[in-house]
Amino acid sequence: MHDLDSRDPLALGQQLMSVLESGRRTATYKLATLLALLEFAVEHAPGERDAAVDVDLDDLAERVIALYWRQVRDLDGHYLKQTSQKVARIPDAVRDLKQVTSPSGDVTLEVARRRGGAKFLATRDLVRMTLVQQPLLRLQRVGSDLVHECFLYDDTWMRDNISAKAVADHGNALRLFPGVCFALARLSALLKPALQIAWVNDVRKLNHFLDQDVPDLPGHLFGIDRISLDRARVVLTAEFGQRCFYCDAAVSTGAHVDHVLPWSRVGIDGLANLVLACPRCNSNKSSLLPAPLHVFAALDRGRERLDALAQSIDWPCQFDRTAAAARGLYATQPTGTPIWNAVRDIHTTRSDFDWNEARGAASDWV
Ligand SMILES: [Zn+2]
Q1: With contact defined as beta carbons under 8 Å apart, do 222 and 78 qualify?
Q2: Fewer Cβ close by (within 10 Å): the C or N end of the chain?
Q3: How far does residue 228's CA lie from ligand 1's centre (Å)?
Q4: What is the C-alpha to C-alpha distance for residues 159 and 143, in angstroms, rounded to an integer?
Q5: Higher confidence at residue 55 or residue 150?
């Protein structure tokens, strides 16, 4: 049993930071696993904050693949090293999947999954097994003596050489201790940037060519792919008109594509989370959480309509993920979190925000 009160976000955050600081990392896998866990926690934040939550390991593996999907493309002609080991199992598998399913390199992971079929499943299997054998097994260990205290989940069943059958026998899942999922979701806005900075630093250390040049490494690893967003801009304009989603002002052809739920909070760039915005709204909103009514309006554009639009440009829709992430974000924000309604109209959250109540009973997507 663990002594730490995992339900206390502050204690949990402190413990996570100490694990990150004390463990010398030989690969970026732990960071990827933690970022994937944070993202999962936001999208699965339980109504009962003390609930234990099962994390499906295939789901987690897919989130890790998504994180590396951008990163395995070349930077100035270099395939970035993500580990000091000879074999980079996870990035190599992701890069291989990308080369097979997207020779031109511009296809989203969701489309690659459709095209890849068996290849996608094999990649996910390999990543899932690697996660259990390496970062998930070591995430809660501090220092070189491997003293560890489980504070997120029970890892005593994990092994370096665990078989796929043993993982399946364990339900193909790990169980976050009571309160951990909610606490991780609440911490996400704080921890995510810290983990990304640590990741950028690790990649710098692993890739010496980056010492001379100073390319936009954070942008390469975690930025928004502005060029591919052009495809989204074209269909959003054609379907919903050349107007700002937030203030209804007419916008020019070069309008910003805005992530309703900010990219920095949840990395969802499916069409359900994308709208056109005027430069004023876009820059003023920045990474603030939008008022829930904006998310409702974005989803009220309709699942089928958004699905069809997304398909027409080989783009993900991610309707359910957008709804789940919004619910999780609002439910776990501390009282007083700034909420963006419009330019110069920012208020703060109440502690008792209830997504379902705010939405009302009419919706077919809650
Ligand atoms: Zn506007």
Answers
A1: no
A2: N
A3: 22
A4: 18
A5: 55
Distance 279 CA to ligand 1 centre (A): 7
Q: Is 141 domain-assigned?
A: yes
* C-alpha 311 to ligand 1 mean position (Å): 27
pLDDT of the residue at 107: 81
Q: What are phi and psi of 82, to 5 degrees?
A: -115, 5
Among candidate residues 354, 323, 329, 277, the one with its CA nearest the CA of residue 38? 329
Is residue 277 within 8 A of residue 244, CB to CB? The reply is yes
- Of 221, 256, 275, which marks where a domain is finished? 221
Q: How far is the centre of ligand 1, averaged over its atoms, from the C-alpha of 342 (Å)?
A: 8
- pLDDT, tens digit, 9 for 90 and up, residues 110-126: 888 888 889 999 999 99
19-60, pLDDT tens digit by residue?
A: 777 656 788 999 999 999 999 999 999 989 899 999 999 999
The domain total for the chain is 2
Give distance in angstroms: CA of 281 to centre of ligand 1. Answer: 4
Q: Which amino acid is at 347?
A: H
Ligand 1 centroid to residue 231 C-alpha, Å:
20
1 inside domain: no
- Structure tokens that stand for 192 in this block: 């995510």
Rounded Cα distance, 266 and 261, in Å:
7
Residue 246 alpha carbon to ligand 1 centre in Å = 5
With a cut of 80, say whether residue 247 has pLDDT above it: yes
Q: Are residues 303 and 321 in the same domain?
A: yes
Instruction: For 170-238, list the strands marked E by DSSP.
Output: 173-176
Q: Is 211 domain-assigned?
A: yes
Phi-psi region of 179 (alpha: psi -120 to 50; beta: other; left: phi over 0): left
Is residue 1 pLDDT above 50, yes or no?
no
Domain boundary among the residues 221, 252, 279 is at 221
Cα(294) to ligand 1 centroid in Å equals 12
On whether residue 158 sits in a domain, the answer given is yes
325 token code pair: 């992430």
Chain position carrying tokens 């899942």 = 173
Q: How far is the CA of 340 from the centre of ligand 1 (A)?
A: 12
- For residue 185, give its domain range: 9-221
Cβ neighbourhood burial of 364 (10 Å; 0-12, 13-18, 19+) = exposed
**d(CA 219, ligand 1 centre) in Å:** 25
> Do 145 and 239 lie in a common domain?
no
